[in-house]
Amino acid sequence: MLTTRFSTVFGLQSPIALAPMALTSGGALVAACAQAGTLGLLGGGYGDVAWVQKEHALALSLLSHSPGALSRFGCGFITWRLHEDASALDWLLDQPHTPAALMLSFGDPRRYAARIARRGIPLICQIQRIEQLPLCLEAGAAVIVAQGIEAGGHGMNSLDGRSTVSLVPEMADQLQQRSPSTLLLAAGGIADGRGLAAALALGADGALIGTRFWATKESLATEAAVKVALETSGDATARSPIFDILRRKNWPNEFNFRAIRNLLHQKWESHMPALMASPEAARHDYDAGVAANDFDRAHITVGEAVGLIHDYPAAAELITRIHQQATQLLSR
Q1: Is 136 in the same domain as 206?
Q2: What is the mean pLDDT of residues 176-191?
Q3: Contacts of 289 (CB under 8 A, 6+ apart)
Q4: Could you tell me if 187 and 77 lie in one domain?
Q5: Backbone angles phi, psi at 288, to 5 degrees
Q6: pLDDT for residue 1 is more than 90
Q7: Residues with Cβ < 8 Å from 279, sequence gap 6 or more?
Q8: Domain residues for 227?
């Protein structure tokens, strides 16, 4: 056991949570992480009810004979998208299974806090700046995730984002002063036991890991995309709104998207005003790339930790590896 407040409160063998990556953290990956003793968060993302129902049912079926693992099964949603359509959250809260936790990211969580609390579900809030903390504490968050700009997928824009290594200890200090019982997870750039050990040393109670779990057997990422990622270093990712524009995602301006900086991304980096003014031709190019599995045009959602990914293991094998390495480092 690698025991922290987070592992104790949630009944975990390792203080690790699976990031609820939209369309990637599906039922199989969630179940594998829960069975391996970590917190599995289903990637509810944009709130596609049919997808959430399908993957939720899969996770339940895989965990049905393991009550301990079932108690480590939760879900996450994009908060601003819930403001537009909360039907997936509504459906989830009506189910007999009580999620181990619900994670809300990218927006004010207070609108949903009371309903989540009435079900006795711990609320996890992911934030990227200290100034976002008060709203989460007002919402009664049991866990804060401090997400550094290194993270893959969505996060704070490059101008306003913070590095994990400076954000986490500052957030830990703030929580010690304002709400000592609130737990803290580090996110962004963590892919192995060194990252987990570092997160704990910086004052976190555990780590939320995305990119490294993206490249596991149970992930919904395609093998073709993983193959490209295995040949990519952390130098080759970029954070920008380009892929959100190409994918027709209307994200708030303060957030943007980290992915591999492929040829299509590079083409538009110096022509952002033109892309925003007239995106249709670029979107057609992107759509064709997705259809053809051409990753010079289709995006691959990974963070800077992609350079630390060198294989494609099962999630349980990965968790064991991270746990053992972190334990060895912390015991020195």
Answers
A1: yes
A2: 98
A3: 264, 295, 296, 297, 298
A4: yes
A5: -65, -40
A6: no
A7: 245, 246
A8: 223-292
What is the pLDDT confidence band of residue 241, given thresholds at 50, 70 and 90?
very high
| Residue 160 within any structural domain of the chain | yes
Instruction: For 69-107, write each residue's pLDDT tens digit.
Output: 999 999 999 999 999 999 999 999 999 999 999 999 999
User: Is 209:18 a contact under the CB 8 Å cutoff?
Assistant: yes
Is position 34 within any domain?
yes
The verdict on 183 and 265 lying in the same domain is no
Phi-psi group of 293: left, alpha or beta (phi > 0 → left; psi -120 to 50 → alpha; rest → beta) = left
Rounded alpha-carbon distances, angstroms, from residue 235 to 40, 130, 226:
29, 27, 17
Is 211 part of any domain? yes
Q: How many domains does the chain have?
A: 2
> What is the number of other CB atoms lying within 10 angstroms of the CB of residue 16?
30
Structure tokens at 234: 């952390």
For the residues 108-123, what does the mean pLDDT come to? 96
The verdict on 61 and 147 lying in the same domain is yes
Judge if 102 and 140 occupy the same domain: yes
Q: Please state the pTM of the whole predicted model.
A: 0.96
Instruction: Tell me the helices (H) and strands (E) count for the chain, helix number first.
Output: 17, 11
End-to-end CA separation in angstroms for the chain: 16
Distance of alpha carbon 20 from its chain centroid, rounded?
5
Backbone φ and ψ for 17, nearest 5 degrees, come out as -120, 140
Same domain? For 76 and 127 the reply is: yes
Average pLDDT of the segment spanning 133-156? 98
Whether the Cβ atoms of residue 71 and residue 100 lie closer than 8 Å to each other: yes
Strand ranges, E, within the chain: 16-18, 40-45, 73-78, 102-105, 123-127, 143-147, 153-156, 183-187, 206-209, 237-240, 255-260
| Structural domain contains residue 161 | yes
Average of per-residue pLDDT across 177-202: 98
Please check whether residues 69 and 128 belong to one and the same domain: yes
- Is residue 19 located within the same domain as residue 112? yes
Q: Could you tell me which residues come within 8 angstroms of residue 166 by beta carbon, excluding any fewer than 6 positions away?
A: none
